[in-house]
Amino acid sequence: MANDKQLIMLDYWASMFCMRVKIALAEKGITDYDCRVEDLMNEKKSPLLQEMNPVHKKIPVLIHNGKPICESMIIVEYIDEVWKGECSFLPSDPYQRSQSRFWADYVDKKFYLASLKLWKSKESTERETGKTEFIESLKCLEEQLGDNCYFGGDSFGFVDIALVPFYSWFGAYECCGNFSVEAECPKLIAWAKRCEQRETVKSSLPDMQKLSEFILGIRRQHLGI
Predict the structure, then answer these.
(1) 90: helix, strand or coil
(2) Model pLDDT, residue 221
(3) Is there a smaller number of Cβ atoms within 10 Å at the N or the C end of the chain?
(4) pLDDT value of position 5
């Protein structure tokens, strides 16, 4: 059962969704938890994962006192509410809080779906469509960022946690689409590098080159490109 430790995370190193949870835990100063890596490459889902997330059987899952919390941004918000500390990921103002949730949702429903089309499509036409949608969604996010240090203004917060894990995938996206994110969205890259200066982010993201080689290897194996 899952109650052998107070806090367990079901993880996979290349998952940007798992990176979100690790960043959130690190921001709250939580380091004493049991991180269990799932063997996703062999499509072997552990009995614990199937027990704790029987609906989707997906990572990440945070198990707190034997109770599972699923879906990355729901987990991030749970962490924010349970371990309040000095910093909060969401603004106190209800309207600003709603806007943070909106843009985090945009990352998942618009930006992420475009990224899938970009790197998983075998047909060049579909891949180009994905590239166009990907860049458009990045530009939209860059416009929302404006001249702020973070999406939350001067404070690192909810939308930053939602988006910054994708930075580690940018090298792979660029190789798949033959473009430069920095050339398209220089302010967004400056933001990502600013985030990466935070130890909580730096320690939670894998090496971009290692991840790019891994993703491109998957493409060659499964798509033959």
Answers:
(1) coil
(2) 87
(3) N
(4) 53
- Spatial CB neighbours of 29, under 8 Å, sequence gap ≥ 6: 83, 85
Sheet with strand 67-70: strands edge to edge: 34-37, 7-11, 61-64, 67-70
Cα–Cα separations (whole angstroms), residue 114 to 70, 118, 133, 216: 23, 6, 6, 17
Q: Distance (Å, rounded) from C-alpha 140 to C-alpha 10?
A: 32
Give the residue from 74, 68, 75, 64 showing the smallest Cα distance to 22: 75
Residues 6+ apart with CB under 8 A from 107: 141, 159, 162, 163, 166
- Check: CB of residue 127 under 8 Å from CB of residue 176: yes
pLDDT in tens, 54-100: 999 999 999 999 999 999 999 999 999 999 988 899 999 999 999 99
| pLDDT on residue 3 | 37
How deeply is 56 buried, as exposed, middle or buried, from its count of CB atoms within 10 A (0-12, 13-18, 19+)?
A: exposed
Weakly modelled stretches of the chain, pLDDT under 50: 1-4
pLDDT at 48: 96
